[in-house]
Amino acid sequence: MEYLLIVAVALLAIIAVVVIFNYLGNRQARQAQADSVAARAYAPRDPFAGADDDAVHGNPRNLVPGDMIDIRGTTYAVRGTLRLSQDGYEWTENFVDTGTGRKSWISVEDDPDLEVVLWQELGPHTISPGPYTLDLDGRRYASAESGQARFTSTGTTGVAPSGLMAYHDYESGDRRLSFENFGSGWEAARGEVLHHTDYRIYPSTTRGM
Length: 209
Known about the structure:
The protein is an alpha+beta fold and 209 residues long. It folds into two domains: 44 residues; 143 residues, no CATH class. It has two helices and eleven strands; from the N terminus they run H-H-E-E-E-E-E-E-E-E-E-E-E. Strands 2-3-4-5-10-9-8-7 form an eight-stranded antiparallel β-barrel. The chain starts with a helix and ends in a 7-residue tail after the last strand. 19% of the residues are buried.
């Protein structure tokens, strides 16, 4: 009888230890989960980051050939993408086409905020980069930046698969004027900064397949 009592007490002790360890383990797990939620909720973050906008309108940083983008009611197909880099800084330029003869470019860069610009090529023109200011169609543009960048090309872009290009950019409010040289002389384009509500992106159904 005394032996059975000892066994019963030992079993009760083991059960008590198991219950205590389970309780402590569950409490630690709940605390870790609460800490993780709090860290996500209160962690320092950029108040102007556009994660919610990207969820609704799409992330233009991820544009690739085959994607579609609607800009103010006009739908463009992305035919090619240039990825450019200079001293660790990167941006993209996307060749887009409506399929009805209207062709444009969309540049995407973080400097430091996201800037998306819709460009229209000017074709042969008398102006060329160099001066601090340039006048075009009654608007004065001021020099913003210039330099050289390396590029790689995917899809249809009209330039080599890779290489070095020169550029000179001008600004006037939300308007842009850009000159680029991929080895065959300066090409000019006029651009307009797009707000995130101006466009909506429809990724290709083949992306990631």
